[in-house]
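Dear H.,

Thanks for agreeing to be a second pair of eyes. The structure we're designing against is below in token form, covering all 563 positions.
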């Protein structure tokens, strides 16, 4: 059976007081009109850049940003997911504070972002986006006059990362989850060339490193480096290379098999939290170190930009400017995906200098200077360092309570319905304290890896193998609702409507507001002749996702058969 719409499945898939930059402020005061270029390379491990010591490939164009720049060797993201990490960076707020803790949770309207602050001070602002995860509908466009994201989705499953992609007329990206970095660069170069004489803030986002890789991780990285070279040509030609404050980051890294994780989002080891952060300073801005080993977070990027421009930093920003002699903050990290998707324990961490504590049912403590790959767990119950870091983590979570209602309360009815499409799984804050007594994700890694294997098989449309893998997983974990829903989808794709219906009935017994289950059971019931039931489920799907053309189309077909 041919799919009726494109379904994309992505694999997620400092207690030490010190100086952040032990230097005086720049000798040359920067104008608040200094151009700002922020480049984000999705899924980029810092330790795969030659400027960070990698030797298997060379990344000369990315590395060149460190010329007359500062390379931060110990920068971490706050959450290893694309949209939540960018939302945290742009708003300088913690994920548990802004409540964007999963990929399909929108940033609430009225959020104070780096773009909105710069726009209020006369900057022309533009963003050039590489993936549907950052689509305008998700709310990160706030403050941008021009937000180039030629994507659209009809419905999105927040916890699984599965989306039903829309098909806007005339769009080359219809039914796609990403666009090539060359297209991102082409759009950005045109806009920069047209606006180079004005104060600009340009945010440029690349998604080429995200799974699935067509020519290997390093091969894709070499390609992105060439795209950065093309972008640099425009910056040099327009004079922005010397005039602008240019910052390159990643939203998160990629495990590539470390700790048994192939991608990102399940664990919070440094393979996914450690990110590159390179700041290329404008000509004439002196006295900045070439490298710094202080631990910093992406939450610090926005206040650093404003501090450098001598613009007021909003009170809502929680990060620390990396300029001057301000004390370093502990660096927080989290992933709630194992909890949200499978009911296992959430993971949270706090890093103080080179010591990192991971709060889990079986806690972990690492000395990242001696053990950068986190192979030796130093945790001993009652150890002073672990107790101190855990206490700081508890205080941090208690101090920063959400300042806005949950996104589902602020969003439009249509967006609210989409964000609730797996409403039985909480996507908001998960309590003020560290983990409870649910299963440690470390102990459920075999089941998670089976689920990842099934997702890849589904992505490549190897349905027979996917069905076998999902059935095996359900023998080991019979309450895995996500796996059962995916099994139903695989049955549907192969025309096995009766077992598909049975699988979706089990899903809806515990997840009655799941969009995908309602849509697909309506589809198979229509094929099986259960028209009354099909109509009810498709009407529910249309209520959950009012913008879904596929649900409306199937509902019309069923109604036609009933007349």
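And this is the sequence the design step returned. I haven't edited it by hand at all.
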């Amino acid at each position: 059976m041919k799919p009726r719409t494109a379904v994309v499945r992505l694999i997620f898939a400092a207690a030490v007081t010190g100086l952040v930059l032990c230097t005086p402020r720049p000798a040359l005061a920067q104008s608040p009109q200094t151009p700002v270029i922020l480049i984000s390379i999705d899924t980029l491990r810092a330790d795969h850049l030659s400027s960070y010591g990698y030797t298997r490939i060379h990344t000369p164009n990315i590395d060149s940003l460190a010329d007359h720049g500062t390379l931060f060797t110990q920068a971490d993201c706050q959450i290893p997911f694309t949209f939540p990490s960018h939302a945290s960076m742009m708003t300088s707020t913690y994920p548990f504070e802004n409540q964007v803790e999963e990929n399909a949770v929108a940033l609430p309207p009225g959020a104070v972002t780096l773009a909105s602050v710069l726009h209020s001070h006369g900057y022309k602002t533009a963003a050039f986006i590489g993936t549907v995860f950052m689509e305008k509908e998700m709310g990160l466009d706030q403050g941008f006059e021009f937000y180039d994201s030629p994507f659209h989705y009809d419905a999105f499953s927040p916890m699984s990362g599965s989306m039903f992609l829309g098909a806007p007329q005339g769009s080359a990206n219809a039914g796609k989850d990403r666009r090539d970095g060359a297209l991102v660069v082409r759009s950005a170069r045109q806009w920069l060339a047209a606006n180079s004489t004005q104060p600009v803030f340009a945010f440029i986002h690349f998604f080429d490193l995200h799974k699935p890789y067509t020519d290997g991780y390093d091969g894709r990285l070499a390609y992105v480096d060439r795209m950065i070279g093309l972008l640099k040509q425009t910056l040099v030609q327009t004079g922005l290379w010397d005039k602008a404050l240019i910052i390159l980051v990643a939203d998160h890294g990629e495990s590539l098999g470390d700790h048994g994780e192939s991608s990102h989002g399940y664990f919070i080891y440094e393979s996914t939290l450690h990110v590159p952060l390179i700041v290329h300073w404008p000509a004439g801005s002196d006295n900045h170190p070439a490298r710094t080993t202080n631990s910093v977070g992406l939450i610090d990027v926005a206040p650093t930009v404003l501090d450098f421009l001598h613009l007021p930093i909003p009170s809502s920003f929680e990060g620390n400017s990396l300029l001057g002699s301000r004390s370093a903050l502990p660096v927080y990290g989290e992933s709630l995906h194992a909890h949200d998707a499978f009911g296992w324990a959430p993971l949270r961490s706090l890093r103080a200098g080179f010591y990192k504590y991971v709060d889990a049912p079986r806690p972990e403590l690492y000395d990242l200077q001696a053990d950068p790959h986190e192979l030796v767990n130093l945790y001993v119950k009652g150890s002073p360092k672990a107790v101190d870091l855990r206490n700081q983590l508890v205080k941090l979570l208690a101090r920063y309570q959400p300042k806005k209602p949950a996104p589902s309360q602020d969003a439009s009815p249509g967006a609210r319905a989409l964000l609730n499409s797996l409403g039985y799984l909480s996507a908001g804050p998960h309590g003020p304290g560290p983990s409870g007594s649910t299963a440690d994700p470390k102990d459920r890694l075999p089941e998670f890896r089976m689920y990842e294997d099934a997702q890849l098989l589904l992505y490549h449309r190897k349905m027979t193998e996917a069905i076998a893998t999902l059935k095996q997983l359900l023998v080991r974990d019979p309450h895995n609702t996500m796996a059962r829903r995916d099994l139903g989808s695989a049955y549907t794709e192969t025309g096995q409507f009766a077992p598909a219906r049975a699988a979706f009935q089990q899903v809806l017994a515990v997840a009655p507001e799941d969009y995908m289950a309602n849509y697909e059971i309506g589809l198979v019931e229509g094929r099986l002749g259960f028209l009354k039931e099909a109509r009810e489920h498709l009407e529910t799907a249309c209520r959950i996702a009012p913008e879904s053309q596929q649900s409306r189309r199937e509902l019309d077909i069923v109604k036609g058969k009933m007349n």
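Two observations from my side: Residues 443-562 form a domain with the Serine Threonine Protein Phosphatase 5, Tetratricopeptide repeat fold (CATH 1.25.40.10). Confidence is low (pLDDT under 50) at residues 1-29, 404-433.

Warmly,
E.
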